[in-house]
Amino acid sequence: MKPREIPVSAWIGILGILVAFFCALFAPWIAPYGEREIVGSVWEPMGGTYLLGTDNLGRDLLSRMIYGARTTLTVALSATVLAFAVGVSLSFLAAVSRGLVDQVLSRFNDLMMSIPTLILALVVLAVLPQNIVILVLVIALLESTRVFRLGRAVALDVAVMEFVEAARLRGEGKLWIIFREILPNTLSPLLAEFGLRFAFSILFVSTLSFLGLGIQPPAADWGGMVKDNKDGIIFGISAALVPGSAIAALAVCVNLVVDWLLKRTSSLKGGRGDA
Amino acid sequence: MHELLSVRNLKIEATAYPPGEAPRDITIVEDVSFDLSKGRVLGLIGESGAGKSTIGLSALACGRGSARITGGEVLLDGENILALDKAGIRKVRGARVCYVAQSAAAAFNPAHRLGDQVIEASLTHKLMTAQEARRRAAYLFGVLGLPDPEHFGERYPHQVSGGQLQRAMTAMALCTNPELIVFDEPTTALDVTTQIDVLAAIKHAIEETRTAALYITHDLAVVAQISDDIMVLRQGKTVEYGTTHQIIEQPAQDYTRALVNVRQAKKDEAKDQSDAQLRVDHVTAAYGNGFTVLHDVSLHLPKGQTLAIVGESGSGKSTLARVITGLLPPREGTITFDGRLLTPALKNRSRDELRRIQLIYQMADTAMNPRQTVRDIIGRPLTFYYGLHGAEKTARVKELLEQIEMASGFVDRYPAELSGGQKQRVAIARALAAKPELILCDEPTSALDPLVAEGILSLLMRLQAETQVSYMFITHDIAIVRAIADSVAVMHRGRLVRFGPKSRVLSPPFDDYTDLLLKSVPEMEVGWLERALATRKMTSAGN
């Protein structure tokens, strides 16, 4: 893959994601002030000393955005990746095995999906100790039920193809069939879903933070910052919109990259060839 | 006096999008001219990619996909339809020129009754009232030999057989009383025993309605029965154009001669057929829902020989292969391989048992993972059964490619980058990689063009001579059976009708079904259709 062949839209996406990661990795060095440091008065306007103004407690908004990228990215990305790892493996196992395994997994999945996600998350997080690992696990578990549904449906389509039968006849094990025969042929819908799920995870973390169950103050995260500054909107103060836009921009960037990957993988499948 | 349809110097181009390159225009059809007068039938024949369907659609001023008609003219009754605007073309399509597609099952809307769909064009073009159209439809159903013509139109597409559906589609095309019908491979997807009836029905209907027709097919023997003239096409250019008689009896071009003389390969059957490497004993098999597909089948296959299984679709021949591979364990009966009882279910078989029996599928497209390169496809059995890796494996892959007469440059290609014949060769190489003792071939050539299929057959024969592998060859094509088999099993509705050495099975006295099957195979001879219909003992059921 030559850099020249990557379309502009994908470059924009890659750039956006890199900026977010750069902020997350080097936060202590690039942030002008500390994460929890109160540096000015409440809701100072943009520009001047504080590039993005200050928040509801007088903390520098830019610094908190940079630190917030850490938590938001870590939680959303690891939760989505985990959700996909679990959802895809289990759904493919169900599609390849059929019979009892499929029934047990699918019905359990239905059971999970029948409980409203937010309520389930609230209950679980209220009972368990509040730390970032638990948070990631809970979000991953909830998201994985959606991934399972999609994964099983696309895998069933591929599992009946003759090349899968040929692999069975060769005597291949389930792992080979799942990861070598089926997975490469289901990448397109799964990638599309990944972009979507990632955006949803960010929103879900934000929702939980908003309700006070996600990332605990004073640690910064973009969703929590929207909540902290929401009252300002009534007074015409735009502090809440900054983290909000950052969430939107990151979701768009991820989806730009995913769209490009999608085009690449789908051109592999149809028509004559690829590279 | 001008002809009904005159095509002059037709040129059709399309834009190709080769991966990693700039899109470029390619010429699909170049400088094709022909005339068709009222009541005559012109056969367009050629391999896939010859441009025959594209030419057929040009009579409807239609370019499929990105194909564009860029040169020449198509004169319908003296009027150039390529110059018409959209509204003008709409008046021509469906009313004056109609189209019969290859797959009637895909061309009918399953949610509407056949009768409503058949008369639809007549109504939208305001050619007749609903009542007149219905009457005409019933008349056409009768002409086409459909059962209960008065009420046939009340059925839904899923309630009739494939052959009936194809005839209903012909009725749909004929309903508006068009001047020209384009038949695009109307019998290719049908069984031979069904094909003969549909062919006869179409021929009768064309004669009855005095409609002109373009008949597109890849099967010269079929087109010889129905058309007055034949045009042979190759890569978008005319190879030969003449009367049916001249093309069949005295072909002038080498390519036409090759088409006429295809399947000349003959193999003498083995003398000694007593030995049994594979023995199927009283096998009865059923699918999960209790539907029995095989009834008490017993046959055997000697080592290094070829057993051909023939029968129409639904006769259970593919199911027999599934039973032998273990995909569908038999309900009763046993299968012995090399003197030892074969484990019935696939999941209980040892790796060595699996290695010794390989399967080649009909559709090489779906039988290979589109995301794996040729190296991975052929290399996997080598790693799996023989533990080969790295350079050793690559060397063996290249050796196998050489065996299937393909250059070693193909190792890094994906299946989508291969032609149909090449794909089937790679599938054969994948089977060979396991060094099997028996290969089950499930119609490996039926999706291929005749000349390509011939290449695959001779490759299989050569490999048998070299490696002493046995074949169980499932086919519906009697010509292939004559060419390659040592013994033959004829199947009909899940039962074994006839089994024995080729010479005995394919010579009289015949039972009724074998007689029908043999008589239904089109022969490269003008007038075969009438003769076959007159002499057969049994009519094909339900068609």
How would you describe what is shown here?
The complex is a heterodimer of chains A (275) and B (543). By secondary structure, chain A is an all-alpha fold. The termini of chain A are close together. In chain A, 70% of the residues lie in helices and 0% in strands. Chain A has helices spanning 8-25, 27-30, 61-97, 99-114, 117-127, 132-159, 162-170, 174-182, 187-210, 222-229, 241-269. The model of chain B has no long low-confidence stretch (mean pLDDT 86). With 543 residues, chain B is α/β, with parallel strands linked by helices. The two termini of chain B are 41 Å apart.
Layout of SSEs?
The complex is a heterodimer of chains A (275) and B (543).
Chain A: H1 8-25, H2 27-30, H3 61-97, H4 99-114, H5 117-127, H6 132-159, H7 162-170, H8 174-182, H9 187-210, H10 222-229, H11 241-269
Chain B: E1 5-16, E2 24-36, E3 41-45, H1 52-58, E4 68-76, E5 79-80, H2 86-92, E6 97-100, H3 104-107, H4 114-124, H5 130-143, H6 149-152, H7 162-175, E7 180-184, H8 192-209, E8 212-217, H9 220-226, E9 229-234, E10 237-243, H10 244-249, H11 254-260, E11 278-286, E12 292-301, E13 306-310, H12 317-325, E14 332-337, E15 340-341, H13 351-356, E16 357-360, H14 364-367, H15 374-386, H16 390-403, H17 420-433, E17 438-442, H18 450-467, E18 470-475, H19 478-484, E19 487-492, E20 495-501, H20 502-505, H21 512-520, H22 528-535
Parallel strand pairs in B: 3-8, 3-9, 6-7, 7-8, 13-18, 13-19, 16-17, 17-18
Antiparallel strand pairs in B: 1-2, 1-4, 4-5, 9-10, 11-12, 11-14, 14-15, 19-20
